[in-house]
Amino acid sequence: RLNFSMKLKNSNRLPRVFTFYYSFILSLYFTVQLYLYTTFFNHTQDKKRKIFITLRVKH
Questions:
Q1: What span, in angstroms and rounded, lies between the C-alpha atoms of 59 and 39?
Q2: Is residue 16 part of a domain?
Q3: What is the DSSP letter of 50?
Q4: Mean pLDDT across the stretch 46-55?
């Protein structure tokens, strides 16, 4: 009976660790994506602003 419970515990531990790592990796991935998106968006906004400013200066 004890052996069976130990086996159950071990089998339960694996998915928990797996889900933990999976969620960790997923969160990391999302944060990286968000960071890249924000930096890219800011970059494009700056570019647009510069282009707009240059156009206004020309005209």
A1: 30
A2: no
A3: H
A4: 76
DSSP string covering 11-35, please?
HHHHHHHHHHHHHHHHHHHHHHHHH
User: Does 13 fall in a domain?
Assistant: no
Distance CA 27, CA 40 (A): 20
In a domain, 47, yes or no: yes
- Determine the pLDDT at residue 54: 77
What pLDDT is recorded for position 28?
Answer: 94
Structure-token match 């009976």, residue found = 1
CA angle 45, 48, 54 (to 5 degrees): 140
Within a domain: 52: yes
- In total, how many domains does the chain have? 1
